[in-house]
Design brief:
Elements (H helix, E strand, L loop, with lengths): L1 H21 L4 H53 L10 H5 L3 H7 L5 E3 L4 H14 L8 E9 L4 E10 L8 E11 L8 E8 L3 E2 L5 E2 L3 E4 L2 H4 L2 E10 L5 E10 L8 E7 L7 E12 L4 E11 L9 E10 L2 E2 L3 E2 L3 E2 L3 E11 L8 E9 L7 E8 L4 H12 L5 E8 L1
């Protein structure tokens, strides 16, 4: 009996040992480890969220500091160190090299004038009202000299800086000498002479090392204006006008050089004549008839005994049709064309069309533009009124005078 009891005890001990091997951890330990893992995951997510919030705050503060510094630099450049208004580009002209100064010096006594003060005042008032700083188009520096004994105007020292950078581009300056003409057309002017500077390639501060000379009488100085346009050329031979500078020559004094540093302004057109155009809508044949009747232009001395022709461009829904040309005519004060041109109009009629009438000189290289007139719904008031009259008068020609602009 004792031996059987001992065998039973041994068997029960073995069974207990096997159960202890099969269950090494209790349920309490399991739940404790799971809770600890969840706690560590929450701590990691909290730390990650805090780091992302701090990174966003740093980016915002960096942008604010950068904008504040740029605005302060612009305001400081405009208003000066002590908050007073300084002439534009005074520091740039003071830093000009001795070689440039010697290149623009002449034998006659000179007077230096930093112009465009009125324009900078207007820009400063606009910026103060709107709270925004004006965007600079660039600056053009040049010198003018009127030699009374020779009756000629001399333009030298053409230099530009601060132009908008668009990669590698070519820059040039087109100069036009305009003179007021008494006429019933308000603001009519005559292009006395036109000249273009050499093209400068791949330069952030182009210096156009050439001079422009034009014969000008004393009586014409008071009525003349010099217009300088800074143009940019790309690889597709398309020119873009960056800005212009206008100088009234009544400020010039005989035998005294006037040095100007002018900020480029937005380009404006000048009236050099007018053209009589008729429009006729033909909805059945889906065409528009453009009649070129007459043109009035001012004839300077340099364009005597020359012929002109007209080119008509028609575009509908921003798609340009093939242009048409008129026959050459003599360049007289009143040019008689009396020609009609037909252009196809899509169905249904699209009224967002534009007609461009351009008058050029014959056998001029490069092609010389005399003036342009634009008609259409989205054009100026006169062109839009003419277009509305054509829409109301179906199959009836409507003629109207339009100014020639350049």
């Amino acid at each position: 009996c004792l031996s059987e009891e001992q065998d039973m005890i041994q068997k029960t001990s073995v069974m207990l040992d096997l159960r202890s091997l099969q269950m090494p951890f209790s349920n309490t330990w399991k739940y404790g480890i799971l809770a600890l893992a969840i706690l560590l995951l929450l701590v990691a997510l909290t730390v990650l969220t805090c780091q992302m919030c701090q990174l966003q705050k740093r980016n915002r503060t960096g942008k604010k500091k950068r904008c504040h510094s740029e605005g302060w630099v612009r305001i400081k450049a405009e208003n000066g160190i002590w908050g007073k208004k300084t002439p534009p580009l005074l520091h740039d002209t003071a830093k000009q090299s001795d070689a440039d100064i010697k290149a623009t010096e002449l034998d006659e006594p000179c007077t230096r004038l930093i112009s465009s003060s009125s324009r900078t005042k207007d820009l400063s008032s606009m910026s103060s009202d709107s709270g925004l700083l004006p965007r600079s188009r660039g600056t053009l520096k040049f010198s003018l000299l009127y030699r009374r004994e020779r009756c000629e105007l001399l333009l030298t020292g053409l230099e530009a800086w601060g132009l908008p950078s668009r990669g590698c581009a070519e820059s040039a300056v087109r100069v036009r000498l305009l003179r007021q003409v008494p006429s019933h057309i308000p603001g009519l002017q005559c292009v006395v002479q036109e000249w273009q500077s050499p093209v400068v390639k791949n330069c952030s501060r182009p210096a156009f090392g050439d001079h422009f000379v034009c014969s000008l009488q004393d009586a014409e100085v008071e009525k003349s204006t010099l217009k300088l346009e800074v143009q940019r050329f790309d690889k597709y031979s398309r020119n873009t006008v960056l800005g212009e500078v206008r100088v009234t020559l009544r400020e010039l004094k005989a035998s005294q050089r006037l040095v100007l540093c002018e900020e480029l302004q937005e380009t404006t057109k000048d009236i050099v004549g007018e053209v009589l155009v008729s429009l006729k809508c033909l909805p059945i044949s889906q065409r528009i008839e453009v009649g070129l009747l007459k043109a009035k232009t001012t004839i300077p001395r340099s364009t005597a005994d020359k012929n002109v022709y007209a080119r008509i461009d028609f575009s509908c829904r921003r798609h340009r049709k093939k242009h048409q040309k008129s026959r050459p005519r003599a360049h007289t004060p009143l040019i008689i064309f009396n020609e009609t041109f037909l252009f196809h109009m899509p169905e249904p009629p699209a009224w967002d069309c534009t007609v461009l009438v351009s008058i050029y000189e014959v056998d001029s290289d490069p092609r010389h533009l005399i003036g342009q007139a634009t008609l259409g719904k989205t054009r100026a008031s006169e062109g839009a009124d003419h277009w509305d009259l054509m829409r109301k008068s179906i199959q009836q020609p409507v003629a109207k005078w339009h100014p020639l602009l350049i």
